[in-house]
Amino acid sequence: xxxxxxxxxxxxxxxxxxxxxxxxxxxxxxxxxxxxxxxxxxxxxxxxxxxxxxxxxxxxxxxxxxxxxxxxxxxxxxxxxxxxxxxxxxxxxxxxxxxxxxxxxxxxxxxxxxxxxxxxxxxxxxxxxxxx
Length: 132
Prior knowledge:
Layout lengths: L11 H9 L14 H4 L1 E3 L5 E5 L8 H8 L5 E5 L5 E3 L1 H15 L8 E8 L5 E8 L1
Parallel strand pairs: 3-6
Antiparallel strand pairs: 1-2, 2-5, 3-4, 5-6
């Protein structure tokens, strides 16, 4: 009794290739936006925001607390392909999750990167990049 050879289906690479070219056009994968890494962000109104401080450095607790006291602070939540400004209850809930993270009490596999961004006329934005 010899071993029978099993027929294998297409490889994973073949499946991905077939799926991406099923309609005859090549699929282009766009990475998720990362304003903190890029050091800049252009919002939906065409306003250019630039990172304040060292790119890639985590925002300190004192700077975060100072920012959160600003009445006109804007908050950008970056999670997925479409970052969004958050306001009201949604912003409050996000900031509570960030505070839990900063306090070292976040659930496993959750992470936030925080940065201060400014416009040329000194408006302030807290950029929160979330990863799971």
